[in-house]
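Table S7 (text form). Paired inputs.
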Amino acid sequence: MAPRRLGFWPRFAVVLVKPVLTVWTRRTWRGMEHLRRDGGVIIVPNHISHADPLVSAHFIHDAGRWPQFLGKASVFRVPVVGWILHRCRQIPVERGSVEAVKSLDKLIAALDEGGAVVIYPEGTTTREPDLWPMRGKTGAARLALATGAPVIPVAMVGPERMFDPRTARIGLRPRIPVTVVAGPPVDLGRWAGATPTRAILEEMTDTIMLRIRDLVAEIRGGTPPPLWQRPARTGTPEVSE
């Protein structure tokens, strides 16, 4: 959905934010053709920095799509801020409550309207010490199973130089190099029509995260590690090859 069709507030957001990012970053964009498609898409980036939404939004906008991010519903209830977020077509999501089902309905509606919905499968910035992807949560897989929308993996390297979550250090120098690469849709065909059991959703999520991890490795080079997960109570991290 192009910003020119969305009205004043999305255009205002672009005018406000894009010039800052143009100065702040030196960009390498690849794989935009995978986003230049009609209809709804689920975009799943890795999450390495609080600057990620700015960089991924810039990339998605440059690819000709309007990014629709998920946000905590409480933020949408903040005066003025919530009003602007609604006008910019962002999506409130309730977490940890029965309202989560209604949130899924909102995501499905956004995809039915041809939206480019952005979901960070890890749910938070990665805790892997070298910022490789973690194992993900199942929201993106559940949405893909419910809608059949293509899942587009996106790998980013560089936003951690803008804000490093490990040190909380902000990089303010201009032209920080950032690389964003989108890949072809993740092949989830073998689960089409499957019942969304926890086991099925976790298998799909691991498949999505491994594809994102491999894209990250293409940028960084070297052999990627297994997907990392927060340490269990025994103190031993769980991994997925």
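Next pair, protein 2 of 2.
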Amino acid sequence: MRPSKRAADEMRSVSFERGVARYAEGSCLVRFGETHVLCAASLEDKPPPWLRGQGRGWVTAEYAMLPRATLTRTRRESATGKVSGRSQEIQRLIGRSLRSVVDLPRLGERQITIDCDVLQADGGTRTAAITGAWVALRDCLQWMAQRSILRDSPLKDHVAAVSCGVVGGQAVIDLDYTEDSSAHTDANFVMTGGGGLVEVQGSAEGAPFTEAELIHMLGLARGGIERLVALQKAAIA
């Protein structure tokens, strides 16, 4: 039995609360159990400088964790004068995941930035951020369409993410911090609503994991992401 008493294929409770940031063009507070991430989308009417004149837009992300999102206080990265390697890696992952389902030429020469701020962390912050960021992005694009900034939405599909791992010899889905900190294998899967793989991250913390374990985790992830996409659809209905 898992510490949370969940079955191996059972995710934590997931919810989406839209429109929580008053001034953002799109926003969502996503909860994966006790992991809470605020995602806010901001529209700029110009692309990044390196993309100007190419007739297409850009979607990017920034990721940060509040000092007391964790059990003990973490120093603000702004106080150190640089973004940590972990934060850079996560925000690039979020950006890649969102761009995989956006027709960038149809966005026009504009940029949408999704700020993902972890309010409370209990494992799976990057997967929650990706899943909630899609909702914020969708609402931003809807905001643009309602104001005739866009003729039609450049959004091609849903995208969501979930973690899996091997804990105590068993493959499980959606690890919380207790499991994540003791997992023999830790993996993150990003997929579209159509089932396409966007990114797979996996690493062994001890003994190497087998191909059979990888396939098992992939199967768990597919089921979890199908549920997340269904919840996204219900949230925006």
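The radius of gyration is 18 Å.
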